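Per-record layout

source: Clostridium symbiosum
name: HTH arsR-type domain-containing protein
length: 92
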Amino acid sequence: MAFGDTFKALSDPTRREILNLLKDGPMAAGDIVEHFKMTGATISHHLSILKSAGLIDDEKNGKYIYYSLNTTVMDDIMNWILTLKGETSDEK
């Protein structure tokens, strides 16, 4: 399993903040942009990186695109970390 893209995506504080915003549920791209002092194009770039890493999903609804967390990648990372610790997810 390749975690390189995931860890690279998580290394940026703006992208981590976007994930933090999405933990409460899906958000339209414009609503995400409003939380930052950056251009829409910059946030779009961050969203693209998060999507490529599998950390978020997008869904078009009318003229808006809504982004949501994809927790399966995080589950994979947590399971990998547990195996490094000599534990399995079944033990927790």
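summary: The mean pLDDT is 91. The two ends are 22 Å apart (CA to CA).
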